[in-house]
Amino acid sequence: MDRLSDLYGRLLDGMLVGACLLLLAITFLIGLDVLLRNLGLDGIAASNELSEDGLIVLRMVPPTLGWAMEWLGDVTGLACSLFFVWYGVRATAASYFAGSLSIKTLIFPEWWMLAPTPMCFLLVAVEFIFRMRLLAQAEREPRADAVSAS
């Protein structure tokens, strides 16, 4: 029975890795589609359909696993946001103390362009905190808005 339990645990771990890779692929697909469209190319015609299909697959994982995956995504997003806050503050401060200028048609301190970065990522971090608060208060299943294509 212990062997069977171990095998079952490995199966669930494999499914989790598969779901995470699927979500990662969806993220890259959407990002590539947006990049291609912004470059004036046609983009990836099937990206919306493939993204929706991926969300259906993710919807099929057990509710507790989906809930845990949401936590993992939110914690990762919070950590990344806070990293960019830290990095943005460092870059802005370095530009300020170096006296760097942006010289194009207009000439102004470079740090003026960099200053919004940490502020914007701080707002993203706050959003992740609110998401985690809602997730902590909800039932142990993914929120409907987290696995919806709409």
Task: Give an account of the 3D structure.
This protein is mainly alpha-helical and 150 residues long. 75% of the residues lie in helices and 4% in strands. It has five helices and two strands, in the order αααββαα. A hairpin with a 3-residue loop joins strand 1 and strand 2. The mean pLDDT is 84.
Q: Outline of this structure?
A:
This protein is mainly α and 150 residues long. It has five helices and two strands.
Question: Any chance you could write out the topology, listing elements then pairs?
Answer:
Elements: H1 2-38, H2 47-59, H3 63-98, E1 101-103, E2 107-109, H4 111-114, H5 116-137
Antiparallel strand pairs: 1-2
Protein traits:
single chain, 150 residues, mainly alpha, two-stranded antiparallel ribbon, 2 strands, elongated
- Main structural class: mainly alpha
Largest sheet: 2 strands, antiparallel
Output the radius of gyration: 21 Å
Shape: elongated
Calculate the mean pLDDT score and round it. 84
- N/C terminus separation: 43 Å
Q: Strands of the largest sheet, in order across it?
A: 1-2
Count of DSSP strands: 2
Could you state the order of secondary-structure elements as H and E? HHHEEHH
β-strand amount:
under 5%
Helical residue percent band? over 70%
Number of helices: 5
Low-confidence stretches: none
